[in-house]
Specification:
Radius of gyration: 26 Å
Strand order of the largest sheet: 3-5-4
Pfam family, one: Snf7
Number of domains: 2
Largest sheet: 3 strands, antiparallel
Number of helices: 11
Mean pLDDT: 72
GO cellular component, one term: cytoplasmic side of plasma membrane
Strand content: 5-15%
Distance between the termini: 67 Å
């Protein structure tokens, strides 16, 4: 017990109570750092906390380096912003995520922040280089909102893709069994899902294009210009949270309505539908040709495939990306469901 107490006193072993709460206010963090500098800190009962996990500081530092390395592999800028959910998914457990974020925040390598729109969104800004992370700006909040939107859109797209593929297979199966009325209804579902899928992909591409241009502007040392132009373009072009949620709600309602159709097909007695056999045969001929090939995947750009960082500067940066192109892209970002 003596050597454990000595290691705890020297800071080599940490208790959960020793960790900084990353969600605490800035004043608390400043006072905590001042307390450490002048030697004032709480003394926790080590023996009474042995039933809890003891944290080796060296191992914690290694895991922090691992997380930064993972983030650097998917971002080409000197800093990155991720949602709290994405940050936690990189870690092995919620407790580890808390410990890593706590250490990064205390070292000045990360900042926790949140925004309150219709939903409460939590995010983390992390420095991927040796320098400390900068303060949270208004553009950071807008970027977090856009990143959260891309994650929700991707989730919706995954659901649509699964139901789209399922409807195609059910249509072909019903057609082969001779139940052409049911098969035709599944074909109609396929068409509706295809339309929703196309809208979702188009919207996702436009949002990620803006995020990519902002990242390019930052990586070419145009951070201040990116903040000014990005924030101004978002406001001038009415990129509002209401429009984002309207689009997401439309997609959710579309998926839900198609599920109701599936339930009705499974439980209700189908009534005769006046459909020409030639039209049905033509539809299924096309469907069979499509199913004979590979299922097309949604081709969407992802910032995760970006080049790695080398001291905050990408290997290849499109230096021709100017504030004008950023503003133009923001202008083209229409968040209304079309």
């Amino acid at each position: 017990m003596y050597w454990l107490r000595e290691m705890h006193t020297d800071g080599d072993i940490l208790l959960k109570e020793d960790l900084l709460d990353p969600t605490s206010g800035r004043l608390y963090m400043v006072l905590r750092r001042v307390g450490h500098l002048i030697g004032i800190s709480k003394s926790w009962d080590l023996q009474g906390n042995l039933q809890n996990h003891l944290i080796l500081k060296t191992r914690l530092q290694e895991r922090c380096a691992d997380v930064i390395k993972i983030l650097a592999e998917s971002h080409w800028t000197s800093t990155c912003i991720v949602t709290m959910g994405s940050f936690q998914s990189i870690c092995k457990s919620p407790d580890e995520a808390f410990a890593i974020l706590s250490h990064l925040c205390e070292c000045g390598k990360a900042r926790y922040f949140s925004i309150k729109k219709k939903d409460f969104i939590e995010g983390v800004k992390v420095s991927l280089v040796s320098a400390s992370v900068l303060n949270i700006s208004s553009l950071d909040c807008d970027v977090l909102h856009l990143i959260c939107t891309t994650e929700k859109l991707q989730q919706q797209l995954d659901v649509i893709d699964k139901r789209w593929e399922s409807s195609r297979k059910m249509a072909l199966s019903s057609h082969k069994s001779g139940n052409k009325q049911v098969a035709y209804r599944y074909i109609r579902q396929v068409k509706l899902f295809s339309e929703s899928r196309a809208k979702c992909i188009s919207f996702l591409e436009r949002v990620e294009e803006v995020l990519g241009l902002i990242a390019n502007a930052e990586s070419t040392k145009k951070v201040s210009e990116a903040i000014q132009i990005g924030a101004q373009a978002i406001k001038e072009n009415n990129v509002t949270v209401e429009e984002v949620y309207t689009h997401l709600q439309d997609l959710e309602e579309n998926v839900a309505s198609q599920k109701q159709v599936d339930d009705a097909l499974a439980s209700a007695t189908l009534q005769y539908v006046d459909i020409e056999d030639e039209d049905v045969e033509e539809e299924f001929k096309k469907l069979e040709e499509e199913l004979a090939g590979d299922t097309p995947k949604s081709q969407t750009p992802h910032l995760q495939n970006a080049e790695p960082v080398e001291d905050g500067v990408p290997k290849e940066v499109k230096s021709q990306e100017s504030p004008t192109s950023l503003s133009k892209a923001m202008s083209n970002l229409s968040l209304e469901a079309t």
